[in-house]
Amino acid sequence: MQIGLVGLGKMGGNMRERLRNAGHTVIGYDTDPEKSDVATLADLVNQLEAPRTVWVMVPAGDPTQHVIDRLADLLKPYDTVVDGGNSRWTDDEKHAEELSKRGIGFVDAGVSGGVWGLKNGYALMVGGEKEYVDRLRPVFEALKPEGPYGFVHAGKVGAGHFAKMVHNGIEYAMMQAYAEGWELLEAVDSVDNVREVFRSWQDGTVIRSWLLDLAVDALDEDEHLEELRGYAQDSGEGRWTVEAAIDNSVPLPAITASLFSRFASRQDDSPQMKMIAALRNQFGGHAVESAKKA
Ligand SMILES: NC(=O)C1=CN([C@@H]2O[C@H](COP(=O)(O)OP(=O)(O)OC[C@H]3O[C@@H](n4cnc5c(N)ncnc54)[C@H](O)[C@@H]3O)[C@@H](O)[C@H]2O)C=CC1
Ligand SMILES: O=C(CO)[C@H](O)[C@H](O)COP(=O)(O)O
Known about the structure:
Elements: E1 2-6, H1 12-21, E2 25-29, H2 41-47, E3 53-56, H3 62-74, E4 80-83, H4 89-100, E5 105-112, H5 117-120, E6 123-127, H6 130-135, H7 137-143, E7 151-155, H8 159-187, H9 194-200, H10 210-221, H11 237-247, H12 253-265, H13 271-284
Parallel strand pairs: 1-2, 1-3, 3-4, 4-5, 6-7
Antiparallel strand pairs: 5-6
Bound molecules: 1,4-dihydronicotinamide adenine dinucleotide and ribulose-5-phosphate.
């Protein structure tokens, strides 16, 4: 099958390779000419045979909106756009509507697998009308991992990105749990080799997982993570998961706490703990520490 791929970064670049390895014809466009197969998005569209399929794999928000707006102008009825980025699921209906006014189909695809997807395959969580999803089956088949799992048509437009958002919420909480356990193990004198404890957990334990394997890889590279600063960014998925939980009155204590831990990581000092210290001092005369360096 022939497919256009917009955004050839860490994800799109490898997806192009995996699709090509499976025998598909991929025309890639990226604003970075070093990565791009064509000079413009219009060239990509012109080189595809109708009905065209264009997979968008650029950062969520404005870049994705910009590409979808341009594709709405360039594509023709019966063509299909897939948004494979980590877009907020509430954007999907808007994109589907914008495209459907011109007879263009829309499918949202939550993609998991990161930079390992080229080798291991990409797990896909897809939303959209069956007609468009079915048209994309050969592409999904090439991208997904081998074996029975790793693909779901989760429901109507938005369901794919909603499922991926919840996946990422779980990812936040799992990573936070491993990180907390690691810190506690490192904090005590009785455990000599924290890295080997983590390694031993990789077989037979209740908590073995791919994230645990990756934690061991990270500790093999830097045993006490001394090269890293304790600072973690987020790209939206955790926030949207918490927002969806509030909208649906679903308690998510672990995921919410893991999101807030990332926010705490960005502070050099804790303004709220200054207030806690001040109040303890006010009511109980408890000692405080000075902000001024000794
Ligand atoms: N890195 C990861 O582990 C995962 C990322 N994602 C999502 O996949 C999407 C892409 O992520 P990455 O590849 O990691 O990002 P990246 O930053 O490595 O690559 C993005 C690429 O898009 C290109 N680009 C930006 N605006 C463009 C435009 N208007 N037209 C054409 N190309 C444009 C950039 O030049 C860049 O090459 C994002 O939505 C991300 O959230 C999804 C799953 C996993
Ligand atoms: O989707 C992913 C993994 O599944 C991406 O790596 C995503 O960037 C992770 O979320 P965050 O950047 O908020 O940690």
